[in-house]
Amino acid sequence: MYNAPAKGIRTDFAVNDIFKPANGNAIAQSIPYDYIITDEMIAAYIASRGLTSPFPIDVGLLLKWNTDTGAKDTTGIAPKSKISVMIAAHTDYAYAFVFNGDFNLDLWDTGVSADLRELHIYSRTSWTLYGAIDCATSFIHTSGEANCVSFNPGNNALSSGRAMYVGAFRSDSASIFIWNTVAPFTYERCIAGDLPSDGGNPDAMIQKRSWMSNPDLSVAGNSRVMLLDATGPATTMAPKGDQSIFLSKGDALEDIGIMPTGAAPLSMDAAVSLDWYTWDAAKTSTGFIENPNRTLYIDATTLSENVVYEANFHLLDYDGDRVVTVDTSTNPASIVPPSTITVGGVTEGPWQFKLAFYDNGAPVQVHGWYLAGTSGTLASDLMVMLNWNIAPKMPNDSGTHPLYGKTAREIAWGRALFAKVNGNIITLRY
Amino acid sequence: MIYRVVISHHQAAYLESFRKLFSFVAVFDEMDTFDCVAVRKFGLQDIETVPVSGNRSVNRNAGYLKLSSVAPLALDDIVEFYDGDRVPTLYDPVYVEQTMREHNLGALLYMCPNDTRQSLTGNDFKIVDTGTLINPFYACGFAMTVAAIEHVRAFNNGPLFRPEFTGWGCEDQYLGITCAHLNIRVGLTPKIQLSGAVGGDSDFHAHYRETLQEYINLIRANHLAIKI
Question: Is the Cβ pair B133, A391 closer than 8 Å?
Answer without folding.
Answer: no
